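Lab meeting, action items carried over

1. Structure of the two-component assembly. Owner: GW. Status: complete.
Input record:
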Amino acid sequence: MSEFQTAKADGAPVPAWKGLFAKEDWWAIWIGLGLVLVAVALFASGSSIKWLAVSPQKWSHLPEAFAQYGQHAGQYFALFILWAVLFGLGSVSLGIRLTEFLPSFAFVFVVSVILYFIGQWDQASKYSLEPPLVGLGLGLLISNTIPLPKWLEAGFRVEFYIKTGIVLLGAGLPFTLIIWAGPVAIVQAAIVSLVTFGVIYFVATKLGLDRRLAATLGTGGAVCGVSGAIAVAGAIGAKKEHAPIAITLVVFWAVVMIFLLPIVSRALQLPTGVAGAWIGTSEFADAAGFAAAQTYGGYAGNVPGISGTADAAVNAFTLMKVIGRDIWIGIWALVLSIIATTRWESTGIQSKTGAGEIWRRFPKFVIGFLIASAIITIVSRGYSYADYRKSLTPALIAPIQALRVWAFTFTFFSIGLTTRIRDFAGVGPKPFYAFTVGVVVNVVLGYLLSTQVFGSFWSTFGQ
Amino acid sequence: LASSASLLRLLLKPRPALAPAAARSCASCVNFCDAPALLESRIQGLRSMGSAHSSVRAGDGICLIHDRYLAADCSCSSHEPKLMSPMRRVPTAA
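Predicted assembly:
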């Protein structure tokens, strides 16, 4: 079965078009590309979506922030309606009740507005008040101290928001840059992925853990975090407790890295492109990585000694994580399912292993990311650099990127709101040791590759 | 006469038409839990930095017989069609 040829419970085939609305990856594509196409259409007709893509500007004193909000309150309300309609449509299609999603999303949106304003305070970097860190910290505080009603969780859709944000991010990344830097990202990520997987798998099996658990842990640490763990657990027929163990460890270390990687990078005064590549190599989840990369990007121009642009950190991270690691999950799942079927102990279950696994588990939102990049690259063709900066950036690129930052802000707050610290205690010591050894190797190797082997490439990336 | 009537009722009882390829797969088994809401409630941490609605999950779910997390196109000898069972055993997310 594929997403286009799935089956109902009774085995009857489901129409192919329904598969295009059955997963949040596809909804992220429709929402992200829809916004990009509307932006392009308005730009072509001499207009722009910038009225709708409102975002706070720098402020120094609190009354300035209130005055700024007062002037644009109508735009913020319109922006809320836009996101509520788009994400609401997607959520209903995914089986989430609109009556639960809307109030929950309203809560996420209101807090995100506050977070975004805090991030625009001109002293924010001085006090480490970057929106990703504040959002994550606030979300953790709320979800771990206040018993939230179940219905309120309907709008905490981390993956839905981050995938939509990544599609929008594609509009700010020239396709030529993806072609140019993509191979370097793939080589670096492949080295780290293979070594990290090998280390975790080796240590886990030496500690006596089940090979399917070892593989699930290894993929979670080496490829794409929670997505990697859940994809491979299904492909190899892991025990039902294996995926939660791997996912809990991924989430734990991903949260630690959100804080640790920017702090260490800042102490080492790494250029933003280098830090982005390192975060892309050594973070464990897309959402967590974007939080770390955006935090570090925010230091550019605000913290002395850190060269590069804010976009370089996010773009280098995206190439490394999405192009270098995420898109290969189907191949990992296929290879491991073949090994599990032919080499490991039988489970008494017959599995149909085939090349279709690669497409079935392919993270489809990446297609939207690439198409968005291609659309803007085509639109900007023929513009000189000066014209690009003068007309295209303010009327087309910047508003799309503002929408992307909103989607990311919803993500960062939602990560905190869905992370339960008490869950971390339920993981046994052996999985923890095996995964942690892999984390150490991953971080050290990622640092060496980003700063030494490919350092000159990433330090000039995006300039 | 009564046994003939019950036999007739049994024969005339509507049964779901199963497509050959999917008829014995986990996707059509009553013991297979693949509802996203259920998976997100059972697999701790899944909603935090992942999702049961993502493409990478494909149609995977939890098998209540084998206690394994399986692809939807797996099969085994314990297969029990969903619509032919008197009641669904699959628990709800709540």
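2. GW to write a short summary for the group page. Key points so far: Chain A touches chain B through 70 residues (CB under 8 Å). The radius of gyration of chain A is 22 Å.
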